[in-house]
Specification:
Layout lengths: L1 H15 L3 H18 L3 E2 L7 E7 L2 E6 L18
Antiparallel strand pairs: 1-3, 2-3
Amino acid sequence: MKILCIFLTFVFTVSCGPSASQKKTKEDVERKRECYLVRGACKTSCNSWEYIYNYCSTEPCCVVREYQKPVPKPINTTGDIL
């Protein structure tokens, strides 16, 4: 009887946990959600103006790089040569 109780307890605890496929699906959904939160898109490949933030299952999450205006070099008006 004691062995039966231990066996049933084991079977009950193993059967209640999420399966591996359900866990992977949940992780994929969370990664896609996180990708969209940073204004990214899950695509097969990223363009040159995008960077890979993370991966949505197998494809990368591509996020557009922030545009930084080029800073012009200051003009030397004193006539000194550096």
